[in-house]
């Protein structure tokens, strides 16, 4: 399938997840196969335009992740257009606009899901961006603001008319946050109504569910929490789509994923301590923020430990004794300890042999 001129090798994608879908995680998911698109964590348009170091870090990606979509949030058409140009200059394949985030800090600034309450303004934002860049501009929205404002069908159509090359819909309202379940009927209706590709998002925890949603009529499926629990879910969905049984994932595979994640994170920002893989053209990179500049091994280790704790809270769900593992990871104070915990939990039966 295609989004604009961008070919996607599969219709299954890693959904944007703030704090979770960093470049290291995306690379690992991509290496396991079946992944047609990765979307970055949401990135502030304001921060991009101002060349804020931390913002550029969130937009980092590597070549092996392509095709890659950088998701931005903001509400000012001119700034969003300028941010889209920066994203294009960074070499991203797609620029995505967040219209679904219900977090007050984002929504109160006329960004995230509050754009859904101002469809005319949202269309101006997308129109300005589509005019400013050659790469496809896409939109990720929710079903609506609340149960009485489930306006995703009308808004999606407006986004198409304004120049969006695809839309993704998480079938919950902003008011729902993560309660209840995603309304995939609504998503399928939108897909039916639009000419551009429509991605659905919500509640795919098993590869069979990913396939079922695809068959219900959307062009693609964005998987969020399901990838955090099972990074092989897209590969397994691709197996099913090809008529094969989903590949088995052993405990050792799962342990290796965490060890690989630790290793990738340990090497993040180490090679080029004062630079990023893709810096915005025209913006001379400011000195790295204190959090990341010459942080010393200890604070970098702390950052890696915190990343593992964040992933651990999802990754351990559904595992036998997962809560013990989660607690152990949360108590770990060093990388060595973290590796030991992973080794003991996932490889114990292997190493004894
Ligand atoms: C931890 C977390 C962070 C998220 N961050 C973003 C984000 O930055 N941008 C966005 O559009 N959606 C974000 N989402 C929503 C997901 O992309 C997705 O639409 C939603 O979780 C429903 O899909 P799922 O049931 O497969 O998780 C986030 C979800 C989670 C769980």
Summarize the structure.
This protein is α/β, with parallel strands linked by helices and 353 residues long. Helices cover 46% and strands 14% of the residues.
SSE arrangement:
Layout lengths: L1 E2 L2 E2 L4 E3 L8 H10 L4 E3 L3 E2 H5 L3 H6 L9 E6 L3 H13 L4 E6 L4 H4 L11 H14 L4 E8 L7 H11 L3 E8 L10 H10 L4 E4 L5 H9 L4 E4 L1 H5 L3 H9 L9 H17 L28 H20 L6 H10 L3 H18 L1
Parallel strand pairs: 3-4, 3-11, 4-6, 5-6, 6-7, 7-8, 8-9, 9-10, 10-11
Antiparallel strand pairs: 1-2
This protein binds flavin mononucleotide.
Flavin mononucleotide binds next to helix 10.
Question: What does this 3D model show about the protein?
Answer:
The chain has about 350 residues and is an alpha/beta fold. The strands form two sheets. An eight-stranded parallel barrel has the order 3-4-6-7-8-9-10-11, surrounded by seven helices. Strands 1-2 form a two-stranded antiparallel ribbon. Helix 4 runs parallel beside helix 6 and helix 12 (about 250-265) runs antiparallel to helix 15 (about 335-350). The N and C termini lie far apart (about 45 Å). It contains 15 helices and eleven strands. The model is unreliable at about 270-275 and about 285-295 (pLDDT under 50). The protein has helices at about 25-30, 45-50, 55-60, 75-90, 105, 120-130, 150-160, 185-195, 205-215, 225-230, 235-240, 250-265, 295-315, 320-330, 335-350; strands at about 1-5, 5, 10-15, 35-40, 45, 70-75, 95-100, 135-145, 165-175, 200, 220-225.
